[in-house]
Task: structure prediction
Amino acid sequence: MNVPDHHSSRPGNGPVWGRRDFLGRTAGVAAGAAFVGALAAEPASASQTSAEPASASPAFEARPVRTESGLVSGVPGSQHGVTAYKGIPYAASTAGENRWRAPRPAPAWRGVRKADTFGDAPPQAGSGFAMSEDCLNLNVWTGAAKADARRPVYVWLYGGGFSGGMGSDPLFDGSTLAGKGVVVVTINYRLGALGFLSTPELSQESGHDASGNYGLLDQIAALKWVRRNIRAFGGDPDQVTVGGQSAGAGSTDLLSISPLASGLFRRAVAQSQVRFPSDPELRYLGTSHRKKSVAEQQGASYAAEHGATTLAELRALPWQDINDAATLKDETVDTGTVAKPPLFRPVIDGWVLPVNYREAYERRVQSDVWYLAGNNLDESGAVPETAFAYWREEGYPDRPGAPPIHVTLDDYVSAAQRKFGALADEFLALYPAGTDEEAALASNDAVRDNSRVSTYLWGEEWSRGADRPVRTYFWTHRPPGADHDLRGAYHGSEIAYFFGNLYPADQGWTDTDRKVADTMSSYLANYIAEGDPNGRGLPEWPVHDSGSPTVMEVGEHYGPIRVASAPKTDFWKRYFATQDAW
Result:
């Protein structure tokens, strides 16, 4: 595997990282006060995996940080020289009269608030963690020893289908990126019906004739909090990158076309989400959305099912009664597969989201931000080739609401005819199969080509209305574990490597995994700082090129690869042209 082995610095807002810097600097942590005192100019040292908390930066450990609501004190992060601030409220509780309203300012406090414990998660399915409607809190990791360090900022939005997730997930520990010179912020936002319920009464009450995007309004409020407060943590409010995975990536896309988020961030990272606007996959992925009229009808029906005839009655319901919406799917959406989007998801409401993706791109009204986006080898219906025979032999059941694992030749042909219609024969000629085994492999090939071509065409569409460069990737590295050959480079498998946070620690990570984590977190730190992931010793990551239908493979290998053969690329273009834009 080709992995980087050294780094250089260049003029700009932050350091440029390479692998030797990441691995080699850990030996210098004993340099003492002289090294710590230079943290404002140089990134703190880091190690590749989560570890027991080390000593925090003395400057921050001794000095509380002043936010607009009051003073906060931090705790040592999991890397030397990094301080973490946990559970900082960025808005008031969303309970009671604040339910289904835009977030309101957090109340002030006196004295020093100990930011040593994560706040409550948003209500969602699951157990084993605290959740409540008082959930609009965020977490900050910084290695800056001075408030005027002006380090680049990364705001992370979790995935989970707009029905699950939390900023306190240990997978999102920002210590490694903070050690590379980035101030990392993870946030909570409302989920399910509490985050995305729309009714005519809520729209009328809002003053904007809009409802249903409370989770997105939370994200925007958090970005505004960052703009007002992050300087106190050594961050630069003018160098903010927003990133996320799955629904978090969908949120990033939505924020890029929302006028309410304009000017709040300069760069974007979308992991496992970005597709061409006419790709039917968008209908159930993180970018799936609803028309306002449809959302209001669905919300009114939901309220009636819960015996609520007024907003007061809806707001009086215990959140536990509303939390049942977390698992509801929207069966009215034709995605071309058995997959369906969550019932409660963003709304084209005319205010937060005036238009959908295609309209935003056609009108050239998207934010002019740097963009880095990509997808994974084994997601959206693709699975490792090593898994098919195992599952067929073991009788592993298909997953409800997900593409089938058991692919027979008859299933394959029928699905092609149903999805591609008049283009089915051409599809079957490009992706031929004569047996069940060949059908499974051909289906895999088609899913992966669809993903790569769709993302490439999205880059074409985005670039027409933006001056900033776009970069795309295709993640191929398979994490270790007992099910390594069954899950492959699955949905979300890249997160640990992008964060440089190989969690959980007992998963059997190898030196190869640590090198991949170093490479990917170096790419990401460079991109957050400069808008360019490249650095000396890192394999060149090219910008999107309209004349070259390629994507950057990362993980198992590094370098541009074709999105598909020319005939297959042409086929997907013509197929998308027959579909409605999303």
User: Anything to note?
Assistant: The CA atoms of residues 195 and 398 lie 30 Å apart. The longest helix spans residues 436-464. The domain at 19-382+447-577 is CATH 3.40.50.1820 (Rossmann fold). Confidence is low (pLDDT under 50) at residues 1-15, 19-56.
